[in-house]
User: Fold this.
Amino acid sequence: MTRELVLGRGHECEALDGVLDGVRGGESRVLVLRGEPGVGKTRLLEYLTGRAQGFRVAHATSVQSEMELPYAGLHQLCAPMTDLLDRLPPGQHDAVGGALGLGSTHAPNSFLVALGVLGLLSEAARAQPLLCVVDDAQWMDRASMQALAFAARRLHAEAVALVFAVRVPEEDPPGGIEPVGLPEMLVKGLSEKDARTLLRSVLPGLWDERMIGRLVAESRGNPLALRELPRMTASVDLAGGFGLPSAQPIEERIERAYARRVGGLPLRAREFLLAAAVEPTGDPALLWRATDRLGLGHDAATEAEAAGLIKIGDRVRFFHPMVRSAVYWAASAEERRRIHRVLAEVTDPVADPDRRAWHAAHGAAGPDESVAAELERSAGRADARGGVAATAALLARAVELTADPVRRQDRALAAARAAHESGNPDLALRLLSVAGAGDLDDRRRGEVELARARIAFVSDRGSEAPGLLLQAGARLAAHDAALARDAYLEVVNAAIFAGPQARTDGQYQAAKAASVLPAPQPSRPTDLLLDGLAVRILDGHTTAVPGLRRALRAFAEPGLSPEEGLRWLWLICVTAVGLWDHETMSLLAARHLRLARDAGQATALPFALTMRCVVHVLDGELAEADALAEEVQTVAEAIGTAAPIYGALFVAAWRGRERECVELGARADEGAELRGEGVGPVVSRWARALLHNGLGRHREAAEAADLATRDYSSQLEMGIPVWALVEYVEATARTGCPERAAGAFARLAELTRASGSDWASGVEARSRALLSDDDQAEPCYRQAIEALGRTRLRGESARARLVYGEWLSRSGRREDARDQLRAAHDLFASMDMRGFAQRAARELTALGETVTEDSGGDRSDLTPKEQQIVRLVREGLTNPDIGARLFLSPRTVEWHLRNVFGKLGVTSRRQL
Assistant:
């Protein structure tokens, strides 16, 4: 097809040619064509494929009815590429194979499927450029669209073009998503001149200019409307230009025009079209089997094709998707059900049991247990293939077909859980209403309440969840002690996120309830953690330390199950921080990140990355921490979710990046308003306190630290609230008001003494020194330097030397002060902690020292992505490993490495 054949689309065709030219040059291109039905998106896709000489072309057309079938769209697009699966890493190979129904024994994780699709497209483009087109993408099943949108956001240098055609308006259809955040081109109606040209080409005989003008105006330049509206207009109106304008939207008028055309066909042709509309795969063999069962001959197909509404070749294709819609909805409900039942009968129950169940469900006129049970089995298969959204949709339909009230409740609860896991809280809550209707025993009602509470935690991130979880745990306690104890531990976790915004004293109530609810034997690591935290909440930190240490050891055991680790390692890492146990925190954070990477869990990965980022910051490895904070953003961008910003906030505060710290802090504050995530403002205030102490602006630091700790008296003090006490002590001491810090120091000392680690002892000694008289301060300073020097906490160790050097300088001991301040400055500079380094430099300058400031940055012109890749090459990772880590294809990694080699003047990975 040449550009001239697409009337009035010169600009659009030029853009599509640019897509192909970019891919021919070795780059990847992504484009979303967005426009109203009938505006010409499919025609532009035909132009694109017609111009793609030398390309491998893959095509998928989404059908609204297939949105419930997991990976149906991905199967259309990628099934011809399955011979390349062996080139993918094993985890991605199994995930994509499972998604495409190729007999994988593992349930495909959606994140690994998305990574595998990215790799598969890259591999398919190695021999020749690849063009993938997806028509009517708004109807693609959720699992497929998530995978393709992920790949589209990560394509860079693979010689792949991925082009979607999507309807407006930009509202997500129920149960599905559109590609968002990608380059778009809005396809509008034709200009008046081009619209008139098109209209004259389809109007027979004589025409009236007034009528031409009216049709052009009513169509708004929509090409399909221009072709179909004349068929709806009386010939006398065409001749004389009379008639009233229609109040119906264009889409409705076009569908009505198609319905009229269908209605004028013989009955057998109408039945044939309905069978084709109901059968979404476009498989001619299946359609022929159905029409044979219906007693329709080939004459019916011939008449349907002659009407210009359908074409039968290797696939069954309607002239336009709106034809399918018009045919389907013009039929009566019983006519549609009859065709669905016939298609269920002729669909192979072994080769395609899910589609058979789907047809049977739509063919049922009322409750039908056999069909509902078949849907339930189909949902189980969908879940095994990683299609959680499809699992929810299939179970929801099974609920509608279930007459038995108890079985209906059980299926509704299972469907609600699946909907929650798929990220559809509205559907989950509707299903929970069904599950909670009628008579329920306490156990089932407790399960419903627990599911509702977990939805609240995800949506509100804390404020209401603790109370709801507490209520569910109390109801479940008499029936399932393990599940009830899990709910109580979730209360503690939710309250940590809620922080001062928690609406109840849920932690105390959960701890009290857990203390009288025996743990299952043998105790799980989670039971040890819950019991330890309960003692911490009820009896205080000192009494709880032995039990919490047992919990830490249990989670550090090599036999910990991946499921338990992925679920609870974040909370146990927070517990390790509360015990000032840096070694165990580091070990568990590394395990959490490893588990999240191995499992490909996109939801767990940002939190695992954040905790590992915190460990790197504490170790003074800010470059590594910055890379992980960047990876958190990369994960969020890849999967299209909001990213936790706490890791980046840690790095910004310790580095002294004021603008970045303030901006990230504002985002953390917004989280409290939007999601009830009250811990956000606590973290942002602590970060500002640390930032200002580093910059030597102690009065501002004291204000921020005071706000961070003020409202935490009723909540579990672990991590940031305790670190804020440390900042408050230093800030008030440096502003000449040490008496204001007495209460904060008492709270701090209670926590550090019981823990007894070098980290705890060093921080306590440093804080005590800041508040002590001159004759008592020096031994404390020396104790802090000695204790922190035995740890890997280089930032805290450097801070001890800094405050000691400042004290020595004020005491007139200039040489001793120079030694401590120089050591502190060099440590801070080596870690790129610029705020603290500048504070030390100012003190040295006041003592007559000349300090040369290091820029602290990488002197090369490597981009942040290139710096990440270099670090991973140095760790010994291969290109596929690096691609999996950074959510890039191996070919894009290769491209970045070629740029790195050129910039650094090296020729091999070994030289890096």
Observations:
- Confidence is low (pLDDT under 50) at residues 172-176, 234-247, 855-859.
- The longest helix spans residues 442-460.
- Residues 192-247 form one domain.
